[in-house]
Backbone:
């Protein structure tokens, strides 16, 4: 009997360690091709199934409001199959979105991680983003100074180098912003940081903030400004922390000055994002204004007749294609709405928009209430970036959101439980 108990405890300890190392590996591999993260996700699910205590896990999940809220975007994809005609595309969307269900299922029913384990996962992600951004910079320098015969656009459009990291510059910008948020969190919470380590973190923040300004998308830049402003206000009374936030803002300012002073394509790219026009929409997939306003108007046209229940899980792109052709914008075929709120309204109607807002704002309010400001900043970024992109249509964004949204919410629950326990024991 004792041997069986000891063996069971040993097995559980091994499975718990595997669980932690799989989470850390997933954080590190997020910027790699999708196959890497899919394999780790499958292993994470298998490890969960092997050690699963169905009764306790079920009780944990039904008593966890975050689990219920976090699986709603996935659940609505399945429920709204009843109203779709294009089942092939609908099932493709469901398959892409499985991480939105698997991470809440596994993390909220598994043992709580310790604070040092959360920090190790964050550090693994920060390390991978740092390496990835350096690779991008080195390749850009290689193209500019070694490769010959490149066009001016190929030389100046720094963001075209980012696909080497298996995602576009837009999505990689979201990853870098997340890395900045987690770096600031580690600085604030890591015990007994030495002066050299603090200096290294400050340099890393400076580098990442300038990187965001020079080669990420506009939404990422706005997000980092919002994060810096929020943290400065939140920690205004704490001088040591305020210094770090001020340093991050200074880094962003330096990036702005670099761009504003130089006559390069980065400045033109940012100006272009604001110079959109509703008056003239060209049938041109290379005109930025047209590729943003055209899908927006197509989406609003669809909503007029489908505002309550939407068009169904798999029919959004087909409906937009019809509107593009009707409006003489056939060269925009394939462009999605570039707005996650609009996309959910088109697909699932007003109910879908409510689900998306609940998915975003319920944990946001909780994080503010519990003063988990690094989680608040992450949600700020997601909410801002959802205005310009369909982040739940892209594999890289789905993995980033599903993983860190669940992980940070789990950390918040653990921290809150620990505080209540301390209060009860005093």
Residues:
């Amino acid at each position: 009997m004792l041997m069986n108990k000891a063996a069971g405890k040993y097995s559980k300890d091994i499975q718990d360690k595997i669980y932690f190392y799989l989470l850390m590996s997933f954080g590190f591999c997020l910027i790699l091709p999708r196959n890497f993260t899919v394999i780790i996700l499958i292993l994470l699910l298998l490890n969960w199934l092997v050690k699963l205590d169905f009764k306790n896990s079920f009780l944990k999940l039904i008593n966890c409001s975050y689990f219920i809220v976090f699986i709603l975007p996935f659940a609505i994809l399945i429920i709204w199959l009843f109203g779709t005609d294009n089942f092939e595309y609908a099932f493709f969307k469901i398959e892409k979105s499985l991480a939105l269900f698997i991470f809440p299922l596994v993390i909220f029913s598994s043992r709580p991680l310790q604070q040092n384990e959360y920090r190790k996962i964050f550090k693994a992600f920060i390390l991978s983003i740092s390496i990835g951004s350096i690779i991008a910079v080195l390749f850009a320098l290689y193209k500019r100074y070694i490769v010959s015969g490149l066009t001016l656009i190929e030389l100046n459009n720094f963001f075209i180098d980012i696909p080497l990291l298996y995602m576009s510059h837009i999505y990689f910008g979201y990853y870098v912003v997340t890395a900045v948020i987690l770096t600031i969190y580690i600085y604030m919470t890591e015990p007994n940081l030495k002066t050299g380590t603090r200096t290294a973190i400050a340099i890393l923040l400076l580098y990442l903030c300038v990187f965001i300004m020079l080669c990420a998308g506009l939404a990422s830049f706005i997000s980092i400004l919002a994060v810096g402003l929020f943290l400065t206000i939140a920690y205004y009374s704490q001088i040591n922390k305020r210094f770090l936030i001020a340093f991050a803002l200074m880094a962003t300012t330096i990036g702005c000055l670099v761009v504003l002073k130089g006559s390069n394509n980065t400045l033109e790219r940012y100006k272009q994002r604001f110079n959109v026009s509703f008056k003239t929409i060209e049938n041109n997939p290379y005109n930025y204004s047209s590729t943003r306003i055209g899908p927006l108007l197509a989406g609003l046209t669809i909503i007029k007749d489908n505002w309550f229940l939407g068009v169904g899980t798999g029919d959004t792109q087909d409906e937009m294609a019809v509107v593009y052709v009707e409006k003489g914008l056939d060269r925009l075929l394939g462009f999605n709405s570039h707005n996650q709120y609009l996309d959910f309204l088109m697909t699932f109607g007003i109910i879908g928009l409510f689900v998306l807002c609940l998915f975003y704002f319920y944990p946001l309010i909780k994080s503010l209430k519990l003063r988990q400001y690094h989680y608040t900043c992450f949600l700020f970024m997601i909410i801002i970036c959802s205005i310009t992109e369909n982040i739940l249509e892209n594999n890289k964004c789905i993995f980033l959101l599903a993983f860190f949204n669940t992980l940070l919410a789990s950390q918040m629950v653990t921290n809150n439980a620990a505080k209540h326990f301390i209060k009860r024991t005093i």
Remarks:
- Confidence is low (pLDDT under 50) at residues 420-426.
- Residues 53-111+294-426 form one domain.
- The chain is about 75% helix and 0% strand.
- The CA atoms of residues 411 and 417 lie 10 Å apart.
